[in-house]
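Can you give me the bound-state structure? Components:
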Amino acid sequence: MRNIPLHPFGKRPRIHERIIESILFLFALLSIVITLGIAIILIRESYLFFSDPEVGFWGFLTGKEWQPMIGRFGILPLLNATLITSVIAMSLGIPIGLFVAIYLSEYASDKTRGILKPVLEVLAGIPTIVYGYFALTFMTPLLRSIFGDGTVEIYNTASAGLVIGILVLPMIATMAEDAIGAVPKELRLAAYALGATKLETTIRVVIPAALSGLSATFLLALSRAIGETMIVALAAGAGPKLSFNPFRAAETITGYIVRISSGDVSYNSVDYNSIFALGLVLFVITFTLNMVSRKISNLFHQEYD
Amino acid sequence: MSGMHAFGKAQDIAALMNRRRANAVAWNLVFILSTALAVLFLLLLVCSIVDSVFGYAVLTDEIEPSALVPAKSSVGDFSRQELEEVALTRLSSGVLRRVEHEKPIAQRSDKDLRDLVEHYVVKPKVLRTWGFWDSLTKRAEVSAFIARNPGSYASFRSWLTPSFIVSDQSADPLRAGIRTALLGSLWIIMITFLFAFPVGVGAAIYLQEYALDTRLNRILKLNIFNLSAVPSIIYGLLGLAVFVRAMEPFTSGALFRSFTDNTANGRTIVSGGLTLGLLVLPIIIINTQEALKAVPDSLRMSAYGVGATKWQTIWYQVLPVSVDRILTGTILALSRALGETAPLVVIGASTFISVDPSGIFSKFTTLPIQIYQWSARPQGAYRNIAAAAIVSLMILLLLMNSVAIHTRDKIAKKKRLES
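Here's the bound-state model for the whole set.
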């Protein structure tokens, strides 16, 4: 121990201050531990999965069949269903979410905004299981009455996708509104001064200026749609099938993980390891999307800050 | 009139202007319609759920009440004497012995006896249900259905009743309730709060008050953003591998020799609560950081100025000012945890348990899991009780959120008074 001379004006060592700071630092560090934990666990269990003689890494990535019973582990049917639901969700959520954002930030009066913002907040706060129920009891019957019971199966990816679109809509609207709102007022005023209408200003000036913020929003929404679980678990159906028809049942990556883990799986079985391998794929996809989204949005902030 | 202008002919300019105006009107309409559509989605969502909570149910009894007591068509009309008589003669001997053991028939209340007779003797069964809207508009369909099924009768009922809240889980949709699930949800939320609140707030204080702009701290901040966007099901996989499997001696309670149920093997309330704790941790950190950012720097400077240390400044100045906001953010994060389903399904929450959780090492089910299970069943009546459970969940969430909004408004008022 160093002997520190006590001096009335010197800096006294404050042990408890240091202890508190270190504890707080450890709490902050825990987030890194969680990320590493996720990565290590997913990779370790996936390694066990891929080292199983029945499963090959290449077959996993390119196989067109997912039939654990007969040892076929090709991810394409699951990935395909995930992409179909996500694409349907995005094609509903992006335009409507964007239009709502434009309306809120450029057109609506303060009073209208005061009513609409809470509506979006309520929509965003509803648990996803409720959306799943909505898909099953409202969207599917609606689709069946429009397109006919023969075309639309009871479980189908279209219904799940549309409801995921509704789910991500408030998120897209809120974030896009922030992005549009961050465009400096001078740009709008300059456009008005040149004689542009409000619409021309919005579409030709404001939206292009907010484009990087908007694309960051869309990527984050896509990542959310890909990881969405309960809606597809309830409405998209069970059994991995490689089909491009959105009116047929198909199981997504998340749907499969939920179905397998809600049954009784024994540890160290191929089934058990397979959900971790699928989790890893899901993690890699969403993580990449989040990182790219973050990069783009950082660029955007640098542009106008 | 037909003179040339600098930009072309007068009518060309007029046409261009008209086109631009038409464009503006059309797109304005598109924006308004999209917004209306978003509102419509919310309305449809609420209506389709409320619609399933009320409506006609066509029931059929295994033994009609009139066969038990002549000329009385409902158990509700039975007199005390008739109830006791029916209970003593019609209950199977095993059930009777158990019932008598719990509490003798003669000492039971009328309502209690009526329930007994309903459940064990009359045994009503749901044949088909109609939603609220269909019940109003399709009366003919209901009567036609009753005519096709002899012995059946219609009753207009609300699936959400006080007894639905306090009954436990049952395979019979007429008797099933959400008490076990509700208690499970509350236990889970408690564990989540106890874990995520101190850790989340602590981490946020470090990042906002202590952290210098170093590489490590930048990574920390980026990482927390990333964690907040990881799909919730991934947290389920993490919880399954870490809490349920690797830490089983701890999470099953075996380490403390206090486990209430040794069949749970790690799939306990503490595992579920910690899993959701990890899930909401980044949200709490981000919300708390926002709260701390809102505290003006002048406050910190004046505290330093009178000789306070860093921690004294935080503890006596910064936290008291921001505590309302921190709590609001935490409540919002907890309401997210309350509605989460996927991670708990993945860690293997029990789907059918009728025993109330008795401690943190019990097996559990939660409201969203219960909703999931009931919605996934094809029979009509389960859909109705799923809707009733959804309404209960939403009321719970609404209560939590109104507390959050109330405190937020209170701060706003306080701030106005101060400034």
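A couple of observations. Chain B touches chain A through 85 residues (CB under 8 Å). The beta strands of chain B are 4-5, 8-9, 54-61, 124-129, 152-158.
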